[in-house]
Amino acid sequence: MAGQNPGVLKAKSREPEFYINLWQSVEQQGFWKGELWNRKKCGLVYRQLITIIKVDRHESDRVYVAIFHDLARPQTGLPLQHPALNEDVLTGFIDREEFRKLITWQMKVADASHSDVHLVKLDLGEIQTINDSFDHNTCDQVIMDAASRLRKMLPKACHLARLGPDEFGILCPQPFDLDATLQLIESLIQELSKPYIIKATQISLMPSVGCAIYPHDADTPESLMRCSRTALEFAKRSGRNCFALYDKSMTEIAREKLLMVQDLKQALKSNQLFVVLQPKVDMRSGLPEGAEVLLRWNHPSKGMIPPSQFIPLAEEAGLITEVSHWVLAETLTIAKHLYYQQGISLPIALNLCAQDINNKEFIEHVINSLRAHKLPSDMLEVEVTETMLVENSDTAHLHLQQLRDAGIKVSMDDFGTGYSSLSHLRDLPIDRIKIDRSFVVGMTADRVNQGIIKLITDLAKLIGVEILAEGVETEQQKLQLIELKCFHAQGYLFQRPLILEDHIQYLHSFEHPAPVTLQGFSLIMLC
Ligand code: C2E
Ligand code: CA
Ligand code: CA
Considering only CA atoms, which of 127, 135, 145 is closest in space to residue 192? Predict the structure, then answer.
């Protein structure tokens, strides 16, 4: 908040007279006390009891102090006569606490009538991105529009609650059987996925839904809420616009994940993480042109855990920023060693994930750290996937442009596996496209894959970006790629990812080819 006007927290405007009276009271009586609607950092609107006090320290040094309580949460010292908030101001839906009471009641009804209660949790998805890319008002409009669609679609017997900034709860008691609930969920996903037009801008959401059933899955309101949350998390991970019905094995998987997150926290502290480097080469000469940093986790009891397993987990658990800071520090230490100690000035590429690329502080940290290490800016590169660029377009583009302005090259990783919008390529702030391994694997037998690689190569040339093929494993793939005028590559054919020591040895082998000794020669002859 430092340097900002508290007005950024304002959620619901009152008439101008209200504010005139408020400030008159502050000026004349020295304070004002009353209720306002304000907004939390996460975007949630809440009612607060606020006291604004005028403090004159010197004649020309006046400050105002505001002390407030969240009226939704009973606080010690808060007068009892203030009712707890039970209705969300944006949507008019009941809040979490009211919802819990309702679940308890419906459970009793279900017990008496030997029926089920279906608890559905719905996540709108993308709300944080909309908040980052547009403003709070746009975000509120989208939420209100989504809420009104929900209200219109929901049968009378069901109850709706707003459980978080972009999370809703739906309670489907009797006479809903499972088929009816599933049908309802399907139509809700369909309806909420339709575009939202806010101030002439088209915004799309990709909702996810999880559902748990009383008494089948849980026996208390809290555990039923937990089960539907677990199902929702599963749905989210399966991709957006997805739905999951709770299954007991989900709890087991969730438990394992939790343990893994705890282990990963420990790994960050106790040297279990390390990086390897995989060279990028010019296939015509075979010479190295740079390297990509790949993270490894050597778990004390489980052995090596691949990054494809623990990086998504770190993203989910909010640990990724810490992991990315660690990898960045390691990468720059390696780059500094290569540059100053080994005399090697080839660029090193760092993989970024979606949260990194949307994190302003992290991007600034990358640029500042590079400067602090006194390295030429072209020693560092970053790799991002096309999905990250399309899904978080405005913020991501801005941050990538900042990196490029600082002299850091940007590669688009795994090209061909995401949106692959060829028409947008020209506008993206990138320097290089990395063609995904899946096209290279199939290219020798599949003419379509060859055609795609040729298309991407031609297009890249036209718009002035470099091209690199990933996962080259055979001589035949190499020759075909060269024929298609794709000259740069990475892959096991040239080198597997290596620890720093071996990578240095590999790089030096190109500067001073090992002389063939007589002994060596005779050995070869013997073989
Ligand atoms: P990626 O960025 O596409 O990295 C290339 C992956 O392909 C690496 O797997 C590499 O070992 C593998 N590879 C390279 N050449 C060949 C080949 O010729 N054949 C085959 N079969 N595979 C090859 P790895 O190291 O398991 O990394 C997997 C993914 O994990 C990476 O995909 C990247 O998305 C992510 N990742 C790795 N390190 C980091 C990191 O430090 N930060 C972030 N955010 N993601 C990372
Ligand atoms: Ca990569
Ligand atoms: Ca890749």
Answer: 145
On average, the pLDDT of the chain sits at 86
CATH number for the domain spanning 104: value is: 3.30.70.270
Domain end marker among 223, 246, 269:
246
> Distance between CA 169 and CA 57 in Å, rounded?
49
Name the H helices within 373-427. Answer: 386-391, 393-405, 422-425
Per the CB < 8 A criterion, the answer to whether 404 and 429 are in contact is yes
The answer to whether residues 63 and 193 belong to one domain is: no
The closest-lying atom of ligand 1 relative to the alpha carbon of residue 493 is 18
The DSSP letter of residue 116 is -
Q: How many domains does the chain have?
A: 3
| pLDDT tens by residue, 412-459 | 999 888 766 676 777 889 999 999 999 999 888 888 888 889 989 998
Decide: 295 in ligand 1 pocket, CB within 6 A. yes
Q: Output the CA 389–ligand 3 centroid distance in Å.
A: 15
- Among 16-30, 78-92, 381-395, name the one with the lowest average pLDDT: 78-92
Q: Are residues 242 and 276 in the same domain?
A: no
